[in-house]
Amino acid sequence: MEIMTTLPLAADELLTTTRSVRKRLDLDRPVPMSLVRECLEIALQGPSAGNRQGWHWIVVTDPEKRAAIGGYYRRSYFEYAFSGTTEGAAGEDDPARAETQSRVNSSAAYLAAQLANVPVLVIPCIEVPDGELPAGSQASLWGSLLPAAWNFALAARARGLGTAWTTLHLTYEEEVAELLGLPPGVRQGALLPTAYFTGENFKPAPRIPLEQVLHVDAW
Questions:
Q1: Which residues make Cβ contacts (< 8 Å) with residue 199, sequence separation at least 6?
Q2: Is 111 inside a domain boundary?
Q3: Which of 56, 95, 155, 187 could bond to 42 as cystine, CB 3.0-4.6 Å?
Q4: Domain limits for position 162
C-alpha cells in the first residue's frame, strides 16, 4: 500500500488541532478511496473490549445514498435545532462562550444543508447481539468502537483531510441501516463526513479551564 506523506504535526499539535470541520470541508475535491483506506487501517489499531474487534466501517461515496443520508440528517438537525438543547443554548448564560457557540451553531446548520455534498461519509458500526443495546452500562460496547473512530479522525487530519464528529443521523438509524443494507446485529455509532479542508491550518479551540473540571481523589 502506498503511504501518503503526512503533515509535519507533532503528537500534541495533532491532538489539539483535530477540529470539527464543517464550513471548511472542500465539497468539490474528490477524496481517493486509497486515502480513506489508509485512515481506516490506522483506525483498526484502536482498542476494543477483549480484543473482539467487532467493528465495521461503512464508507458512503454514492451520490444518491449520500443525498438520502443528507435528507435524514437535515430533518434530524432541524428537530434538534428547535428543541432548545443546541450547542448555542449551552453558552447563553456565559458571554465569554457566546461568540464561540454562535459559530458552532452556524457551522452545524451549514453541515446540515451540505452533508449530501460531502464526498465521503464514514459510518463506524459495532456488532451487537440481536441488535439490542444493553440495558445497563454501555461503556464497554461503545468503548470498543469510538476510540477507533477517533483514530480515523486523527489519521485524516494528519493527511490533510477534515472530519466532523456527529451523531444526528441516528434519529433515523433504522432508515439509514435499511438504505445501506446493514444486518440487524450491527449498530451505528457516529457519522464522520470526510473531505479535504480549505484554508491553511487549525488551532486549539477555547476550552473550559482544567481547574473547573479536575477532581483529584474525590469530587
A1: 24
A2: no
A3: 155
A4: 11-79+116-200
Compute the Cα dihedral for 56, 41, 138, 190 and give only its sign. Answer: negative
Q: What is the 3-state secondary structure (H, E, C) of 90-156?
A: HCCCCHHHHHHHHHHHHHHHHHHHHHHHCCEEEEEEEECHHHCCCCCCCHHHHHCCHHHHHHHHHHH
The answer to the question of residue 189 being in a domain is yes
Number of domains into which the chain is organized:
1
The one-digit pLDDT tens for each residue of the chain (219 residues) are 445 679 999 999 999 999 999 999 999 999 999 999 999 999 999 999 999 999 999 999 999 999 999 999 999 999 998 876 655 555 566 766 777 788 889 999 999 999 999 999 999 999 998 878 988 999 999 999 999 999 999 999 999 999 999 999 999 999 999 999 999 999 999 999 999 999 989 999 999 999 999 999 999
Q: Is residue 130 part of a domain?
A: yes
CATH number for the domain including 140? 3.40.109.10
Decide if 65 is inside a domain.
yes
3-state secondary structure 41-91: HHHCCCCCHHHCCCEEEEEECCHHHHHHHHHHHHHHHHHHHCCCCCHHHHC
Q: What cell was used for 191?
A: 457519522
